[in-house]
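User: If only I could read backbone structure tokens as easily as an amino acid sequence. Underneath my words sits a plain record pairing an amino acid chain with its backbone structure tokens. This is the protein in question:
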Amino acid sequence: MIGEISVAGPGAGPYGVTTGPDGALWFTLNQAGAIGRIDLGGAVTVHELPTAGAGPVGIAAGTDGALWFVEIAAGQVGRITPDGAIREFPLPDRGARPHAIVADPAGGCWFTEWAANRIGHVGPHGVFRHYDLPTPASEPHGIAVALDGTVCAVLETGGVARLVP
């Protein structure tokens, strides 16, 4: 059986989804500028982001008990706790268009900077590091961390970038 749950009305633009530390499903609402939560009973809670038009896309459960997300339109990385407290961290390059995000087992998160041709890292307190990709205009999208800590990002140019931190 497959069912659907309405999350925030037509045009909300649900995008990324992950399981949170509380066992609920957490998701981004790109067009609504919000982060949503669905508990195991199907109840939906929506948390509006402080930045209007932020355009959240990727979301990941962090190792710090919170969820991390990227705001493609605002050029920010955000963090939300299970109780709904939100903190946003503006990227040094607000036009970088962060797209995907994954938890770093050592703390913080790795994310792609689609328009800036980089992979970025944000620590738990909002300190950024950035790594330029060797191929111009490779447009990194999805990102993962391998068991050995290697960061891999898939590129629209047809390759995979590997970063050994």
The chain has a mean pLDDT of 93. The domain at 14-163 is CATH 2.130.10.10 (Methylamine Dehydrogenase; Chain H). The chain has one domain: 14-163. The longest strand covers residues 14-19.
